[in-house]
Specification:
Number of domains: 2
CATH architecture of the largest domain: 4-Layer Sandwich
Oligomer: single chain
Number of strands: 18
Largest sheet: 6 strands, antiparallel
CATH superfamily of the largest domain: PPM-type phosphatase domain
Helix content: 25-40%
Strand order of the largest sheet: 2-3-4-5-9-8
Number of helices: 11
CATH class of the largest domain: Alpha Beta
């Protein structure tokens, strides 16, 4: 291994066998503007841990959404505290109202807790269709056990409350859904509904046809097929979540000149030896790297009238201007709806967004020498110093898009 890399202590949290790709897709009950199912996920970098929750509120529309949101939020927050399965289930049962007619809680849930360091996946499930795992294109069924609740809530009738755990492998996919998926088609030509076995068969066929399909794309395929079962007029909310364990896709973003001139070569060599996609953002940064690597830079045409044009350099995927372009990248990322198909233009900021969102681990190499022009009071107020831009960029990437971010300042 070469000497030009991010320090061990900065990258240790992402030195693992796999990346955890989390995705979901939903379709509302016919005629409803809001989904009665709620999906929440959170990456906890300091624990190398990922949590995902899918809750299905009874009924549909706003009332169901409120119940599902309450259930999903409680599930996520108390899972963060490493509660035991029976304790966590008890907390949720106490918080939820009970249907007076049926004696059932008003929402179901599936909670998936992934500890990368422990190489352990734990699933706690209440009355949702049973989660399944695809190991490559084969079904893997872990051993499920019934969860006993504490005595003070035995007066509430309990549905199918169970848990399982297993050690994940590369190319595993965890698939979980609301009952609108497995019951789709009922009364529309499928007597008993689509069912879990047919869902598994459908997922297997997709994986065989497209082995590298992303978590979000697989979830979307499932939901759209379930909607088609209902003749595109769903009689229940349709939700599917997928967690995909795969090789990570990596990108490095270099911006700003190093504070000390004698670090220029090291700065350029980190970029040169990086194993993944490479982005340079900033004119001075581009000049330094071109000089140190002995490469030419050629300008491209204007593709976004609001930004300076991008450039080309051998061995680099994207070369753009710095502050203005990164400011627009942050704006675009903050205004993207993660639950819809994302469409980008051809401009430099759009290209950066596309690469970053297609990546799992994003390494940010930041030079800390201040460009005095950025303190000119005549420049627009959104022109910020580089560190603040990077802080905002990494925040939206990690919090909104669950990217793993590793930063090195020079």
């Amino acid at each position: 291994m070469n000497d030009y890399c991010f320090e061990k202590q900065e990258s240790s949290r992402v030195e693992k066998k796999y990346h955890i790709d989390v995705g979901h897709f939903q379709c509302n009950h016919e005629g409803e503007k809001i989904c009665g199912d709620v999906f929440l996920s959170k990456r906890i970098p300091e624990e190398n841990r990922v949590l995902c929750v899918l809750s299905d509120g009874m009924g549909h529309g706003v009332r169901a959404n409120v119940l599902a949101t309450l259930t999903a939020t409680i599930s996520l927050n108390f899972s963060l505290e490493h509660k035991e399965a029976n304790t966590l289930a008890g907390i949720i049962m106490r918080a939820l109202p009970v249907c007076s007619e049926r004696g059932l809680s008003y929402a179901t849930y599936t909670i998936t807790d992934i500890s990368v360091d422990d190489e352990l996946v734990s699933v706690l499930e209440y009355d949702n269709p049973q989660t399944f795992i695809m190991r490559g294109n084969r079904i893997y069924e872990p051993e499920w056990t019934h969860v006993e609740l504490e005595n003070d809530i035995t007066d509430k009738r309990i549905g199918n409350l169970k848990k399982c755990s297993f050690s994940p492998q590369i190319e595993d996919r965890i698939v979980f859904c609301s009952d609108g998926i497995t019951q789709s088609g009922m009364g529309k030509g499928i007597t008993m509904g689509w069912g879990r076995n047919n869902l598994i068969k459908f997922v297997r066929e997709i994986i065989e046809d497209t082995p590298t399909i992303s978590a979000t794309d697989l979830a979307e395929n499932v939901v759209k097929h379930a909607s088609a079962n209902d003749l595109h007029a769903p009689k229940d909310d349709l939700s599917c979540g997928v967690i995909y364990f795969r090789q990570p896709r990596k990108t490095i973003l270099c911006t700003g000149p190093p504070f000390n001139l004698d670090k220029d070569n090291e700065f350029a060599m980190i970029l040169k030896h990086f194993d993944g996609k490479k982005i340079i953002s900033g004119a001075t940064t581009t000049e330094i790297i071109a000089r140190e690597l002995g490469r030419e830079v050629t300008d491209e045409g204007i593709t976004d009238p609001t930004l300076p044009p991008s450039s080309k350099m051998e061995g680099i995927d994207l070369v753009t201007e710095g502050v203005l372009t990164l400011s627009k990248v942050i704006y675009l990322l903050n205004n993207i709806n993660v639950n819809s198909n994302i469409q980008f233009g051809k401009g430099p900021a759009d290209k950066i967004c596309r690469v970053l969102l297609d990546s799992d681990e994003i390494y940010v190499l930041v030079g800390t020498k201040i460009n005095e022009s950025h303190h000119d009071p005549t420049l627009p107020v959104e022109i910020e110093i580089r560190k603040n831009l990077i802080r905002r960029l990494t925040h939206v990437l990690s919090e909104k898009f669950m990217k793993v971010i590793i930063i090195k300042y020079m």
